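Quick illustration, no need to memorize.
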Amino acid sequence: MRFFIVITVSAFIIISVFSDYFSERKNISVLEDIVEMIRLFRNEISFRKSDVNELLQCAQKRAFSYISFDDNKICLCGIKDEEIKEEFESFVNKIGTTDAEGQLNICNEEINVFEAMLCKHKEKETVKRNVNLSLSLLGALCIIIIFI
């Protein structure tokens, strides 16, 4: 009975920590998509002087995993992090509101903001990966001690 309890508790701890790690991994992927899209917008505005509709058409041709384009509207898919959502919505609301130079400034500012968020989430991921390793080793040790 004691063996079953230790294995169950170890499994729950490891699963909960790994799910948190994978959530952080997803946030990193979302932020990478966002930065790539904003860079695409910046390049299109800079070299082609594209308007919002042209930007959306160009972005729709790319295969973004977490960004969708519905009815000329840019949306994030399946993200729970409120900070990322709010900043992304802020960017979407700003795009197309000024001249080309203003749009380039907005894109550059938002790239800086999202890259800072990306660095922060990568640091969190590293910490969580180390915690996962430690907890996995601890769980394995507990199971080995039970068998001895």
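The two ends are 15 Å apart (CA to CA).
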